[in-house]
C-alpha cells in the first residue's frame, strides 16, 4: 500500500453544490451477542447530505480527512 505524505487540508469558504441525496440505513450490533446497539433503519435512517448538519466541527474535520485520503488514493489509482 502506498504511503500518503505531505498531506494537508486547507479550509476554504463554504460551497453550495448539488449532490445526490441518499438514505443511509443499517444497524450497529454487538459482535459478541448480536444485540442491536443502534438501529438506523426505517424512520431512523440517516439522510445524506442533511446528516452533515448534525455533526460537530470536530466530526466534520474527521470526515473531511477520511474523505480526502480516500480521494487522493482513488485519483492516484490505488483504490
Description:
The protein is an alpha+beta fold. The protein has a domain at 23-75. The chain has one helix at residues 57-75, and strands spanning 22-24, 26-29, 36-40, 46-48. The strands form two sheets. Strands 1-4 form a two-stranded antiparallel ribbon. The longest helix has 19 residues, at 57-75. The chain is extended, with a radius of gyration of 16 Å. The protein starts with 21 loop residues before the first strand and ends with a helix. The mean pLDDT is 96.
Major sheet strand order? 1-4
| SSE topology string | EEEEH
Helix percent reads: 10-25%
The SS-based structural class is alpha+beta
Q: Give the mean pLDDT.
A: 96
What is this structure, in a nutshell?
It contains one helix and four strands, in the order E-E-E-E-H. The chain has one helix spanning 57-75; strands at residues 22-24, 26-29, 36-40, 46-48.
Q: How is the topology of this model organized?
A:
Layout: E1 22-24, E2 26-29, E3 36-40, E4 46-48, H1 57-75
Antiparallel strand pairs: 1-4, 2-3
Keywords, separated by commas or semicolons:
79 residues; alpha+beta; two-stranded antiparallel sheet; 1 helix; 4 strands; 19% strand; extended
